[in-house]
Amino acid sequence: MYALNETHDPALTSWVASANTPDTDFPIQNLPFASFRRQGSSEAFRGGVAIGDQILDLAAAANSGVFNDLPLTALMACAGPDLNPFMAMGRDAWSALRLALSQTLRAGALAESALTNCLVPQAQAEYKLPCHIHDYTDFYTSIFHATAVGSLFRPDNPLLPNYKWVPIGYHGRASSIGVSGQSFPRPCGQTKAPDATEPSFGPCKRLDYEVEVGIYVGKGNALGDTVSIDEAEDHIFGLCLFNDWSARDIQAWEYQPLGPFLAKNFASTVSPWIITNEALAPFRSAFTRDAADPQPLPYLTGDNNTAQGGYDLTLECFIKTAGSDAENKVSTSNFRHSYWTAAQMLAHHTVNGCNLQPGDLIGSGTQSGPDHKEAGSLLELTRGGKEPLPLANGETRTFLQDGDSVIMRGHCEKAGARRIGFGEVVSTVLPARVRA
Amino acid sequence: MYALNETHDPALTSWVASANTPDTDFPIQNLPFASFRRQGSSEAFRGGVAIGDQILDLAAAANSGVFNDLPLTALMACAGPDLNPFMAMGRDAWSALRLALSQTLRAGALAESALTNCLVPQAQAEYKLPCHIHDYTDFYTSIFHATAVGSLFRPDNPLLPNYKWVPIGYHGRASSIGVSGQSFPRPCGQTKAPDATEPSFGPCKRLDYEVEVGIYVGKGNALGDTVSIDEAEDHIFGLCLFNDWSARDIQAWEYQPLGPFLAKNFASTVSPWIITNEALAPFRSAFTRDAADPQPLPYLTGDNNTAQGGYDLTLECFIKTAGSDAENKVSTSNFRHSYWTAAQMLAHHTVNGCNLQPGDLIGSGTQSGPDHKEAGSLLELTRGGKEPLPLANGETRTFLQDGDSVIMRGHCEKAGARRIGFGEVVSTVLPARVRA
């Protein structure tokens, strides 16, 4: 866990004026990381930090003469197209750079004149994945999602006996993860109607999104080593928004006995900005279970990392249809409802000696809240497609149509802290490509 | 599919004398690829081709002055530590280099004097993974394995209704794949005895191997594009031996509903040599189903790629225990028993637009044959640990013990063709590391 320090002071303001507006996602208390370049340019992608409506170009900042020592070494690790070298440096380097950026972007800082030349407006930027994602693992940490989906796939047996003991996870596809702005054709595949004797082939008819939080691994571990629950927070670089697209009809037919495959691996989309774990320190949340829930095994509890292991992170989801500019809100949920913490996911993932690498992405699983309206997927909101969801613009949806864009936003807000935001992840469904 | 050509001529011999012995795995008809350097040296790893008991150093060969045009370009793509650039070049480049190597390594070739200096004895070499494996997917293509394992995990429902329609696959962990020689600690994890009320934590008690064939993707496809069944063979670079280690007790407790995770991702081991798809042309095998089996959907059949879609590849497995030098054979099976072909796996994997990348590894799933003695895992050979397996050295095994090494070998043999071998994959179980 990170202690609060001067970088979290809600009174801090920046000489970048747009960082001081009440509704910005990127005040000086946030300082998230991405990989960017100017739109349509042939510039190399390099690391950037968001400040208000600007991006601090970290390759330029490394050459500005403003920074020295560990912060300068850290900046140099951010100057290439992938942030993996910086993520691998570990917590001391991350904190040192955060402090140095906070001090130099602060109102009144002497560095203002030198760093002004290192700013690029976000409106002129394009992004790529912030790092090379070696492996992607998806967990299943919302007990409300697991119960609701389980009741659709297995009405007689919705929540399996292992759920409250094992942080259930599975490996996903790294190659098809894209950054916000991604579009992809509706997937084709095999499906079988419950009353059909044979499967058939065609475009997915039950295309869905999943509102997830992505967790980026910073420091890795060697094969055979474990990351204990008490060490796990030091291995978390930061969080992003994550849409884990799902083809429900393909999933229902293929997932036994080895889990989801083609139902998931056609696309997954991350937000461009990684909100660092240190920036999230003011928003850690209590971790509560029902009194009747079992105490997890010792390797999942540790000394102190579960008591405030959650994140009070509001997650909003919107659908924008092809024929309208309206962003129709379909749900609001919160990551604090997760049954398992990020530290528990990491400790579990490595308890058998599995090696994590800097830049690995860990999905939280769909974050549905306790109320039906807080569900993080259409599968849940429409009760398996049986109850069409009315949109504010007058349309309805059971599952997604071609041309639909799904937008997810997230923010942390709390009395006594400066609100920080996650930006957004938006991606669009294109028509299926059916071969002649 | 590859046609037979002069490189397959069984009468060919090499000026490397060890390539002409009847029992070598690496006659001039084989010419498999690896990444190697001299043992214990600080040399850079680079591509190599096995010939008899020697390795042709491809970086040295590129500088030998012997090669020109496309073969030279291909050699230059093999000169670095990872073969991905060569794998990405596609079939024309692979074939051109194979033909050039066959002609220059042939008995009587003028290149002998120049290439003699490019040989490194295999006895002096060490290997790494032949390429960067971006994503690893494991299939489940032996119906005999699926039925036997299904009957242990789900006695009432061994072979699920989707098996004969869907080439079942799931994503595995790329980071923990190692090359032959890998050792790893016995994994720890949660298990639950059927009669226990709660799970417990500790070292795996049912550690197992899986005899698999690995398929390396050559040319990839863009996100949203598909690889049709008739194009799929052009995307297959070659095959290797693959041991997909499995912790059966961890698997039984964790695998519902999203599939295996910690039961598999602690280690997987490949053989150093990739046998090219072209080298395997003489050994393609008929693809037979029972008359009662359903005809697969059209995207899995195509015009001609299933009739000879199998590989007649003998797979042998041995256990070497800590206290003895004996290699105790425990099974012999054959990849021709696979219910789904490699081309079907690739076509299925991409039918939803999932992008494959050069160097991706596709596991065949455990290759068990129709007879119980041909099973590719201890789980099957011991019927779930109930019938200890006698070893030739007098010991018995239900599951693996610390210090056990598992050795897998493979070869193709047929009248009218020169026998070729796969070399071996060997790896060793170390004691669990239990934290105090």
List keywords for this structure.
homodimer; 436 residues; alpha+beta; SH3 type barrels; Fumarylacetoacetate hydrolase, domain 2; eight-stranded mixed sheet; 26 strands; globular; EC 3.7.1.2 (chains A, B); metal-binding (chains A, B)
Task: Report on the architecture of this protein.
Chains A, B: This is fumarylacetoacetase. The structure is a homodimer of 436-residue chains. Chain A folds into two domains: 6-128, SH3 type barrels (Roll), CATH 2.30.30.230; 136-430, Fumarylacetoacetate hydrolase, domain 2, CATH 3.90.850.10. Chain A is α+β, with helices and mostly antiparallel strands and 436 residues long. In chain A, strand 25 and strand 26 form a beta hairpin. In chain A, 56% of the residues are buried. Chain A contains nine helices and 26 strands. In chain A, the strands form seven sheets. In chain A, strands 6, 7, 8, 13, 14, 16, 17 and 22 form an eight-stranded mixed sheet that branches. A five-stranded antiparallel sheet of chain A has the order 4-3-2-1-5. The interface between A and B is large, with 71 and 71 residues.
Determine the oligomeric state from the structure: homodimer
Shape of chain A: globular
Number of domains of chain A: 2
What fold name goes in the CATH topology slot of the largest domain in chain A? Fumarylacetoacetate hydrolase, domain 2
Distance between the termini of chain A: 56 Å
Cα-based radius of gyration of chain A, to the nearest Å = 22 Å
| Overall pLDDT level of chain A | 96
**Which structural class is indicated by helix and strand composition of chain A?**
alpha+beta
Query: At the first level of CATH, what is the class of the largest domain in chain A?
Result: Alpha Beta
Report on the biggest sheet of chain A.
8 strands, mixed
Strand content of the residues of chain A, in percent? 25-35%
* CATH architecture field of the largest domain in chain A: Alpha-Beta Complex
The total of beta strands of chain A comes to: 26
Please name the two chains that share the biggest interface, counting residues whose Cβ lies under 8 Å from a Cβ on the partner chain: A-B, 71 and 71 residues
Low-pLDDT regions of chain A: none
Enumerate how many helices of chain A there are, as a single number: 9
- The helical percent of chain A reads 10-25%
What is the H level of CATH, i.e. the homologous superfamily of the largest domain in chain A? Answer: Fumarylacetoacetase-like, C-terminal domain
